[in-house]
Amino acid sequence: MIPTDIDGAGRDILARAQALARHSDSPDHYTRTWLTPAHRAAAAQIAAWMREAGMDVRTDGAGSVIGRYEGESPGAKALVTGSHYDSVRNGGKYDGILGILVPIACVADLHRRGERLPHAIEVVAFADEEGARFQTSFLASRALLGKFDAALLGRRDAAGVRFDEAMREAGLDPAAIAANPADPARLAAYVEVHIEQGPVLLGEGLPLGVVTAIAGGTRHLVTVTGAAGHAGTVPMAMRHDALAAAAEMVAAVESRAKSQAGLVGTVGLLEVKDGTGNVIPGEVSFTVDIRSGEDALREAAERDVFAAFDAIAARRGVAVSARRNHAVRATPCSPRLQDLLAESVAAAGAPVRRLPSGAGHDAMVMAEATEVCMLFIRCGAGGVSHNPAETVTEADAGLAAAAVGEFFRRFRQAA
Ligand code: GLV
Ligand code: MN
Ligand code: MN
Description:
alpha+beta
């Protein structure tokens, strides 16, 4: 990829992101969750683009699409790059997708020139990172490394469909979800391109950023059980209202997260079981997401939040229980690869800015197998993400392609 090509590459990348967003679970907005018909159609489209770019394509047991562009010698170790093609509900069109489309554009450019590198390039379109359907996280990158948690097979989605049934319906074998894992000895490194999902680059007028580290996080599903009853007849002093208790717990998450810099806490989903306007809520479940760049800070906050939940439950005479769905430690990016990425950004003609990632990424899981780095692309519209207003510009996407093309060529395996 040469810098004079960047407008063309950026235009193609944005047009493909638009086209891919039409594969949505909902006709009203962009939502694409694991193994729905829209998700399978998106996988087929991505596979077709990979083939057109000169890659050999395979699909793994979790439905991830993997394109390989062979190196100078067949069977060379792979520089792996990629991101996810599932989305949050009513999400943005670029979250995850840019990390697939930018490297496909770079490989297409190598292919057009008939250029081979000392290493292979593998582009992985991860099937499930957000986990909106089964409340999973990093499902596909874990499966790629053979680290799938078999306890998930019995989990049900909001419509009651079991995880293993959803796999069979999509033509995947639940017994083989983590079969043939990637061999860490065959991975040279992992680089992930991602929209920044925040306002830092936008605020500083910079198109690209080199990520220094990714914040760690935990997610829990909390259930509060009180006593359902008639909204008109049970005196206030005699109630064990699960929702009123949960409301206090939500506020406890917010106030603990606000109490210290470098910490964020979110309750993004709350459900009242059999909720009805004239019934005292008997059971409520909600999610808790706590993150920090410093694991010790996050772990202390988590302890405090759950102690507060216990105190609220005891005072209100309700029960509280929690299941941890996700835990990932803060992940530093390889200093060597950060420097290489910084040189590549500069060679593409953009200033170099290093910044941490507050969002989670598949790179966190890949770091368990190889050295990782990440390139951020400026997020428009005030830096909003996980939201349909998320935007990027053609010029920024094109610059990212130029920088990644440079990175592919400059990359050498660690000594
Ligand atoms: C992934 O989008 C995350 O939750 O950080
Ligand atoms: Mn996301
Ligand atoms: Mn993402």
